[in-house]
Amino acid sequence: MSTYHDEGVVLTTAKLGEADRIITMLTKEHGKIRAVARGVRRSKSRFGARLEPFMRSDVLISQGRNLDRISQAASIASYADAICGDFDLYANGSVILETMNKLVNTEHESATEQYMLLVSALASLSRHRHDPHMISASYVMRSLALAGWLPRFDSCVVCGRSDGLEFFSVPAGGTMCVNDRTPEARGMTTQCRTQLKALVEGNWKLLDEASLQRCESEGEGDARTGSSRPNPDGDAQCARIVEEWGEYYLERPLRSLRLLDS
C-alpha cells in the first residue's frame, strides 16, 4: 500500500462506526481528500484533536481502494482554538470552510493556490486581523474569482460603458448601466460597488477603514474585535450580493452564510 505525505486543513468530519471518523481535508499538494482516521473518537486517541475542523495538520496518508487512511497527524497551526471560542469567528469561519468544501469537488486534484488562500483567511480570522465578516466575504469572492468567476465592476457587462453603473447582475457576471439593466439586476450604490471590488482584490486598507467607520458610527469601538455586523444600508446590500454570487456559481446554498445573515 503506497503512502504520501502532505499538509492540509480539515474541512469536515463524519462519524464512521464506533470509533472512527471520515476526515475531509484540503491539502497543499493533493487537493481535496477524504480519508479514514481510525480510533480518533476514543479518549486515548493520539491525534484525534489534530483532525478537527479548522486544524492545519501535517499528515501521513495511506492510499486505499475506496478511502485513504490517515496514519499520522501533527499540528502545524491550531486555528480552531481561537475560532471555536468566539461565536462571530466561528460563524464566519464556517462560511469559509463550507465555501471551500463545495467549491472543490474533484478529489486528489492539486489546488495549491486555493489552499494558500484558505490558510491565509483562517490565519487572519484566528488572529483578529480584520473584521470577521469582511474576511469571510472576501474569501467567498476571492476563492470564486480564483476558480474563474471574476465579477466585472468597472464597465457594464452589456454595453461596456463606464458610467451610470447603478445595478449588479449575478447571472450576467457584474455591473450594469441604467440603460441596459436586466430585470434580475439589483440596485447598487457606489459604496457597495467599491466595497465589492475591494473584497475581490483583498484591499484591506479600504476594508479596514470601512469597518472602523461603521463601528464608530455604531459606538462599537475597534473594528477588529469581532463584534461588528453589516449595517442595514451599504453593507447589507453588499452582503446580499456576496451570498447570491456564492450560491449562484457554487450551484448550491451556503447554509453558514444564511445563518450569518439571520
Structure keywords:
five-stranded mixed beta barrel, 8 helices, de novo design (two linked rop proteins), three-stranded antiparallel sheet, OB fold (Dihydrolipoamide Acetyltransferase, E2P), 23% strand, single chain, alpha+beta, 262 residues, 39% helix, 2 domains
Structure commentary:
This protein has 262 residues and is of the alpha+beta class. It is 39% helix and 23% strand. The protein is built from 8 helices and 8 strands. Helix 2 runs antiparallel to helix 8. Strand 2 and strand 3 form a beta hairpin.
SSE layout and pairing:
Elements: E1 3-16, E2 20-27, E3 31-37, E4 55-62, E5 68-78, H1 79-83, H2 87-103, H3 112-126, H4 132-146, E6 165-169, E7 174-177, E8 186-187, H5 190-201, H6 204-218, H7 234-250, H8 255-261
Parallel strand pairs: 3-5
Antiparallel strand pairs: 1-2, 1-4, 2-3, 4-5, 6-7, 6-8
Helix pairs in contact: 2-3, 2-4, 2-8, 3-4, 4-5, 4-7, 5-7
Separation of termini?
48 Å
How would you spell out the order of helices and strands?
A: EEEEEHHHHEEEHHHH
**Count of the separate structural domains:** 2
**Which class do the helix and strand fractions yield?**
alpha+beta
In the CATH hierarchy, the third-tier topology of the largest domain is known as de novo design (two linked rop proteins)
Percent of sequence in beta strands: 15-25%
CATH architectural name of the largest domain: Up-down Bundle
Largest sheet: 5 strands, mixed, barrel
Q: C-alpha Rg, in Å? A: 20 Å
Shape: elongated
Poorly predicted segments: 221-232
* Fraction of helical residues: 25-40%
Mean pLDDT: 89
CATH H-level homologous superfamily name of the largest domain: Recombination protein O, C-terminal domain
| Strand runs, count | 8
What is the highest CATH level, the class of the largest domain? Mainly Alpha
If strands are numbered along the chain, what order do they take across the biggest sheet? 1-2-3-5-4
What count of helical segments does DSSP give?
Answer: 8
